[in-house]
Design a protein that fits this description.
This protein is an alpha+beta fold. It has one domain: Glutaredoxin, CATH 3.40.30. Helices cover 33% and strands 25% of the residues. It is built from 3 helices and 4 strands. The protein has helices at 17-29, 46-52, 73-80, and strands spanning 7-12, 36-41, 58-61, 64-68. Strands 2-1-3-4 form a 4-stranded mixed β-sheet, covered by helices on one side. β3 and β4 form a beta hairpin. 17% of the residues are buried.
Length: 84
């Protein structure tokens, strides 16, 4: 059996510069660490929009919030450490 690739979700908005920054940083970090992420527009999901409101971007590992607004690299590395 192979090692599972860690998967993350970025809750974002299309017009959010902080969201763009987090996505760019995550993309750059993928060169150093093996993980995958998807971007989910909170405005397309009323439940997520109600839950997170203006508090985007949010980086989620399943239901666990890793960080919000800015990428917290130490928190991300701690979460990724569970897969090493």
């Amino acid at each position: 059996m192979g090692v599972e690739t860690p998967r993350l979700t970025v809750l974002a908005r299309g017009y959010c510069h902080l969201c763009d920054e987090m996505i760019e940083q995550l993309t750059a970090l993928q060169r150093e660490a093996a993980f995958a992420f998807e971007v989910c527009d909170v405005d397309d999901h009323p439940t997520l929009e109600a839950r997170f409101g203006e508090r985007v971007p949010v980086l989620l590992a399943g239901e666990e919030e890793v960080c919000h607004y800015r990428l917290d690299v130490p928190a991300l590395n701690a979460w990724l450490g569970k897969f090493r």
